[in-house]
Design brief:
alpha/beta; Rossmann fold; about 55% helix
């Protein structure tokens, strides 16, 4: 049996599902469903988890933020953001440092792809970026 695809899921894909953003909801929720059923090995960068907590706590409550983070980590494994990830991110020619950190967290976690709706932000590898619909076509 072939190994599952390993992907790092960008926070914008998670927010598509949580906020039911159209027309992205269907494909993004299918990606998370595949991660939940372990058809793919899904990761989320550690800093995306803290950002999700912050957003929910700010606009809802601390209790709901804890639930939201619990849901994410029950579906996706957390890709570490450590000194090696930061050092690697500093070497990437990205305009957005957060994207560079995300890319290097994916590399460090052994991911094959970054799944995002902002593929233009990730044109300069080292991993390919796919939109949710493109990942679904590979599964």
């Amino acid at each position: 049996m072939p190994a599952n695809l390993k992907v790092l899921v960008d926070l914008n894909v998670i927010l598509d599902v949580v906020q039911r953003r159209q027309p992205f909801y269907s494909a993004s929720s299918a990606v998370l469903a595949h991660a939940e059923t372990r058809t793919i090995d899904g990761f989320v960068a550690a800093h995306s988890v803290t950002t999700r907590f912050y957003l929910v706590a700010r606009f809802a409550s601390l209790r709901q933020a804890r639930v939201a983070v619990g849901q994410i980590v029950s579906i996706l494994r957390v890709a570490a953001v450590d000194d090696a990830v930061i050092a690697g991110a500093l070497q990437l020619p990205y305009g957005d440092f957060e994207d560079a950190v995300q890319m290097m967290a994916a590399v460090r976690a052994g991911a094959e792809y970054v799944v995002t709706r902002n593929i233009d932000d990730y044109k300069v590898g080292p991993l390919p970026a796919l939109r949710p619909v493109e990942l679904l076509a590979l599964i």
